[in-house]
Amino acid sequence: MLKHSLIALLLALNIIGISAVAHAQTHEEKEAHHGSQHPLATADEPGDKKGGFDAKEVILGHVKDAHDWHLMDIGETPVTIPLPVIIYNKERGVSVFSSSRFHHGHASYDGYRLVTTHYLHEKGLSPNEYPDGKIIAVDENDNPTGAEIYDWSMTKNITALLLSSILLVVLMLNVAKAYKVRGAKQAPKGFQSLMEPVIIFMRDEVVKPNIPGKHYERFVPFVATIFFFVLINNLLGLLPGSANVTGNLAVTSALAIISFIAILVSSNKHFWGHIFNPPVPFGVKFILAPVELISVFTKPISLMIRLFANMLAGHIIVLSIISLVFIFGSLSKFAGYGFLPITIIFNIVMMLLEILVAFIQAFIFANLTAVFIGQAMEGGHDEHH
Q1: Is 112 helix (H, G, I), strand (E, B) or coil?
Q2: Distances in whole angstroms, Cα of residue 65 to Cα of each of 137, 167, 205, 249, 252
Q3: Domain count, the chain
Q4: Rounded to 10 degrees, what is the CA torsion of 365, 262, 371, 188?
Q5: Do the domain assignments include residue 226?
Q6: β-strands 93-98, 84-89: how paired?
Q7: pLDDT at 1
Q8: CB-based contact 166:104 (threshold 8 Å)
Q9: Last residue of a domain, one of 153, 173, 207
Q10: What is the pLDDT of residues 186-238, one digit of tens each?
């Protein structure tokens, strides 16, 4: 029964995902058509593409951050959730307004403008200097002023992080409440019975073997929180219309910095003595010491890159497989509909794999954090004896 329900859910998610890509491409074609009507548009600009499916634009549009949360399209009407835009300018102070004021990048508001591909072509600006999705200051003629601004807006990824954090807190408080009401000696029930084995596994198989002595007890909440936080964001990122949080380098960088701080706080004199004065011949110390020091910083970097690359690659692969329907459909409707069953089968397999990867990457991030903390706390040989 559970197997059939899971297959039905994955099938529904694939159909929703294919529909979302179709609507996204329709929206892109409208933008391109709108751009082609502008007098400054040229023959080699995207505005003159004739109905071709641009998989790159669709895929990157799904995985990158945005100032509004696009969920789906109903007919020709995009369903989006406008998010707060918070801009600080040294001359004008703080400006707060809704992202809907930008009208999906077609208008400026209060002296600010959301950079879009259409705007770049209209003004003849370089995308390297003005990245797509960035907010810039403009004058009365809608031209960039070059004024320095600070964007503190509530973007899609930030909003998703807040929602996932609230979800994590609510779930954990419910489990804590169940233990408080029922007691720790009674058999768990409901959601408590699902969480207890995971928490015990994290304590006995991840934290305890890697962190020496009784120090492991104070790190169980920290490592378990990292695991559940990464896992929730990984799983939520697989839903159609959701935010690609753990596929964002800024998010994984923040998680890696938190782990790095925990590693440094846990370190002792033996750890730093092993780095700056490794137990090797004197001549080799000058070579090995810099290598050991660099390894201190490569540990959090490896955590950051591993999670980011795996989750981003998974999203791109799923969207690429979905896009095959429209790539074949742009050649022939018969080819598009004929390839649809194959796409659904491939995506069911990929979604199952992505669910597995979501658990694996959360476990790896938490496990390596515990390993690195244990290495920083490791004492000398005399302490072990």
Answers
A1: strand
A2: 20, 21, 36, 11, 14
A3: 2
A4: -70
A5: yes
A6: antiparallel
A7: 52
A8: no
A9: 153
A10: 777 778 888 888 999 999 999 999 988 778 888 999 999 999 999 999 999 88
